[in-house]
Design goal:
Lyase, Ornithine Decarboxylase, Chain A, domain 1, 11 helices, 2 domains, nine-stranded mixed beta sheet, alpha/beta, about 25% strand, TIM Barrel, globular, eight-stranded parallel beta sheet, about 375 residues, about 30% helix
């Protein structure tokens, strides 16, 4: 009997552990909240799927009002296209002969768009697209303060846009940027100013391209940590926020996003070596703690949570004998992006029972 057949309809507490769970009503509320916000702001929604890892969830977002999806890697885009998702942005540079061949061969199966920030890469993608007989949409990535990838705002954007526009195998679709350096600013007014300044560089670059008679229809930016600001800034056409449908400790405590927690890891208590310590079977190979520590649900007097490879350790400030070996504990995920990728399946739970099991088809698609 397959795991899917066995699990569906049963209480979540009967699942073998560790297991990745999503509370469906909570996730549905988060999706509705984000979709309504984009509609009210008058911008498109192209949610990032780097945390979602499955076309089933992408289609759920499309039904809610998203017009396309964003992927971090070419391999993720291939999974989404194979799952019937049509409008896909790869918000990353696709470099090298092998990957570029895969990119242009994906074009007949999806309306794929790719980010570029260098002339040699533009020419290589153009040559491959012409050889394949396709025309590929391109967004120019602009460095708006994160100082990762991207050309500098202003003249450099116009120069690269002119090159893209002149390539027969490419179609200049617009610009994209990511104001990630602003996400952890705690003061709301300061954060708003920082986001507006960063996104302003993107919008101004788009305006300069248009004045140079270069077509810029898309101005794409905004993550879960900034979308409530970015979506209402003049000149922005679409928002890439996606992980907020799950909610996690990082978004709530460090990015100041008050989405409800939907994503948890179910673990089993394997040891109670002292009344002040709980050991469970979920460690770093199950849930990440790189960006924020996972938070145990329903456990009192927690002073710290620490992960080793295979163990989770909860330290308490007061003795608690009510948690016993064999009991199940849920942890709110610390960061969804670096936790979902550790699992093969996601259990959708409603009213405490497993309703659906989704295979995480994008897991491991790093190329």
């Amino acid at each position: 009997m397959s795991l899917d057949t066995w699990a569906i309809g049963r209480p979540k507490t009967e699942l073998d552990t560790p297991a990745l769970l999503v509370d469906l009503p909570t996730m549905e509320r988060n999706i509705d909240r984000m979709a309504r916000y984009m509609r009210d702001a008058g911008v498109g929604w192209r949610p990032h799927t780097k945390a979602l890892k499955t076309p089933a969830l992408a289609h759920m977002l499309l039904r809610a009002g998203a017009h396309g999806v964003t992927c971090a890697k070419l391999g993720e885009a291939e999974v989404m296209a194979a799952g019937g998702v049509r409008d896909i942005l790869i918000a990353n540079q696709v470099v090298g002969d092998h990957k570029i061949r895969r990119l242009v061969n994906l074009a007949p199966h999806a309306d794929v768009m790719v980010a570029v920030d260098g002339e040699d890469n533009v020419r290589a993608i153009d040559a491959a697209a012409r050889a394949k007989g396709v025309r590929l949409r391109v967004l120019i990535e602009v460095n708006i303060g994160m100082h990762r990838a991207g050309v500098e705002p202003g003249d450099a954007v116009v120069h690269l846009a002119r090159l893209v526009h002149g390539c027969e195998g490419l179609r200049l679709a617009g610009l994209m940027g990511w104001e990630a350096h602003t996400i952890r600013i705690a003061d709301p007014a300061e954060k708003r100013r920082a986001v507006a300044d960063a996104v302003g560089l993107l919008v101004q670059s788009a305006d300069r391209c248009r004045r140079a008679d270069l077509p810029v229809d898309i101005v794409s930016c905004g993550g879960t940590g900034t979308y409530t600001i970015t979506a209402r800034l003049p000149g922005v056409t679409e928002i890439q926020a996606g992980g907020g449908i799950f909610g996690d400790v990082l978004y709530r405590t460090r990015m100041h996003v008050d989405h409800d927690y939907a994503l948890t890891v179910l673990a089993t208590v394997t040891s109670r070596p002292t009344p002040l310590r709980i050991i469970c079977d979920a460690g770093k190979k199950t849930m990440s703690s790189d960006a924020a520590p996972p938070a145990p649900v329903g456990v009192s007097h927690v002073t710290s949570v620490a992960l080793s490879a295979e163990h989770g350790k909860i330290e308490l400030s007061e003795p608690d004998a009510s948690v016993r070996v064999g009991d199940k504990i849920e942890f709110v995920v610390g960061y969804s992006d670096t936790t979902v990728c550790l699992h093969d399946e996601l259990y959708g739970v409603r009213d405490g029972r497993v309703e659906i099991v989704w295979p995480l088809l994008g897991r491991g698609k790093l190329r």
